[in-house]
Write a structure and sequence with these properties.
Structural class: alpha+beta
Order of helices and strands: HEEEHEHH
Number of strands: 4
């Protein structure tokens, strides 16, 4: 029983840490929306898009932890990263350079 309590306490600390990071991102970007995606054994990716078009992501060790964190943060959560939600992302020269480099066979210097 003690092992289960330790695991639960560890998971709750991770939820609290992710929630704090999500809220901080939202505050910095005038609000935020998100999407949670399962990424296999690695856990789940929380993609965040701010009202100003800024974006970022966080990785949670499990999908359940990611879901709890976004729920506690109070942000709007989307089922998928497409449509109006994806259109809110603003990319700059850095992202376009990186994407172009990947398309032609490697990162751009």
């Amino acid at each position: 029983m003690a092992d289960t309590q330790q695991v639960d306490a560890k998971a709750e600390r991770k939820v609290a840490r992710l929630t704090k990071q999500i809220k901080s991102f939202a505050k910095e970007h005038g609000g935020a929306e998100g999407q949670v995606a399962y990424i296999g054994e690695r856990g789940a990716r929380i993609v965040l898009v701010g009202e100003d078009g800024g974006w970022g992501d966080l990785v949670a060790p499990t999908y359940a932890i990611a879901e709890k964190a976004v729920e506690k943060s109070g942000i709007t959560v989307h089922e998928s990263f497409d449509g109006e939600f994806a259109a809110k992302v603003k990319t700059g020269p850095y992202e376009w350079t990186r994407m172009a480099g990947i398309q032609v066979g490697g990162p751009s210097n």
